[in-house]
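tool_call: predict_structure(chain=1)
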Amino acid sequence: FYYLNSPACYCDFQKFEDVKPQTMNVNSEFTDACDQIEDEWLQSHTHEDEKKSLEAMYARLGGDNWIDKDGWMTDTDHCEWFGITCEDGYVTRVDLGGNNLVGQFPVYTRDDDPIGNYWLTSKYGLANLYKLVHLDLANNNLTGTIEYAPLYNLQELEEFYISRNNLTGEADALVAPNLYQADFGNNTFTSMRRFEKYKYTVQDTLWWCDASNNKIRQDANDLLWHMPPKMEHFIASNNNIRGTLPEWQSLNYLEKLREFRMASNYISGELPSFEESYTSLQHLDMSYQKKNGLTGQIPEDLWRTQSFIKLNLAGNSLTGTIPSLVGDLNVMKEFDLSNNRLIGAIPSEVGMLAGSLKVFNVANNTITGYIPSQLGLLQGASIYLKDNLFYDVNLPAPLSLCALRAVEAFDLESNPKLCPPQRNALNDFFDEAKGGDWLNDSMWQDEYASYCSWNGVTCDGTDHVTKLKLSTNGLSGKLSRSIADLTSLEELDLSNNDMKGPIPADLGLLSNLSYLRLSYNVFTGTAPAGLGDMKRLQLLQLQSNRITGMPNVPSLNDIKHGLSTFVTDCGVPSDFDEALACENCTMCCNAHDDCYPQQETKLKDYGAFSGVLAVFFVVLCCMATLLLYVIGRYKDSGTNLTRSTRRRMRLKDDIYALS
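tool_result:
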């Protein structure tokens, strides 16, 4: 198969569908040079010619070591060889990606020159597959440069995939007049053929081009000046492309552009507005340009691009503010303007992106003002705000954001000024105790109010929580382990609620605790052993729960609060198989909700008492009246507390415990 071998020649790509030129490389010094190519030349190549070209590829690309070489170099029809697809006997698809091809890109020159013209040369290999539509040689070990001229005659070629090889030299996205997709990514190409005009028109079929992760070192304006008008996806990230982006008659007039990515290059200057792409552009990535990067403000027209799904301009020197128009980008998923020089406040309209936005990153700018609570509405999103100037406003970050109520991650979650640890601990306590059902949850869900103003919370002068008193407030659920983070807590009263589950062992870490009332709940399990190590504990009331084990608490031996100092369910009869053992309890309560001083409880075994009465009745019947009188007076004296008396004691607990 023959082709015109003059690098100064071309035919008009734009007119391809109309005139169907038979070659793409016509020397301008010849008048009507395209007409000199006889159709017979193209018709003269046979199926056998194509088979020989495939055999040459097998021989020169290490075919014996291919991963899959089924059918190759056998007597079977070459259209049945692995990776080969034909139509009407002509090869239309070559799919040999990831098949361990090793060697030079398969365009080969015969030694003979049957025509005898210095500008005509006989070629084979891929150049002889005239009906080829799809070529995939990606993920192999092809090396060297590509001789593109013989490929210009592949007028049916639509898809050209050669990524992830070791190819170098020039990448040419104009390799064929009817090309739709071209992938040159992940090679070592050092240049890329610019998008050129052909007779006042441009190649208009190419809509997807990837030249990323190469070593292309060119001027961006020159390279992109005549971007094909149907371009939808252009990717050239991680190269050495320099200069400024073109604007007039180029990027601003691409009506179908959906993806434009040129991250990690050396591009500078201002960002184009992409004004004609505002209904189509979905992914713009110009992040981390080396040296100074992009400068100036983000064009206002860009904020009107409601089709945006991903916007990444991180790592530049962009200035200005984020406008409220950001709230109109209602399909945005990833928004990254980090590491720039943006100023002003975060607009609350960002919250309007709830349901779509998954990444919001404006870290490392000079953004001021408070953090809007609307960010906490971004369900499942990751929020990055580090290294800005939020500290200038004397407000914490929104509670919902610090508590991760809806968002997936917040990079300031551990910042003690913006997300105070004690507020986080109280919020955990609120959630696990089903705070939404409390009788009084005043201020507990306020986004910015100081936690020291929340109902039942008292702080010292350094905003450390010292008292948490929520008795008879409708608490349920469980006691959060986060209670141990309130390290300065001195008084904890959660009595007369409906809290369930075990008392967390972490409670024993509260070394400053002096008053602990958890009575009249439904706590289960064993009381934390750490209670025995609390040296400042002066009052402990755990009665009317289902606690089955109790440690010795030496600090309560001083009995500073009388009989109310240490109260548990150690009385008889008991709800348990065996009465709860409590060595130094001052008062024990039983299954009938009757409470007795500990020393009296040890003597009160109801079976023994009945036996004594029987003996007295038989032996000293005459003294029965007197005995009953004495017993009656004994009970009336208050040493045996009746159930009604015990109920009155609840009202007096504050006198004993927390007055």
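agent: The chain has eleven helices and 38 strands. Proceeding to next step.
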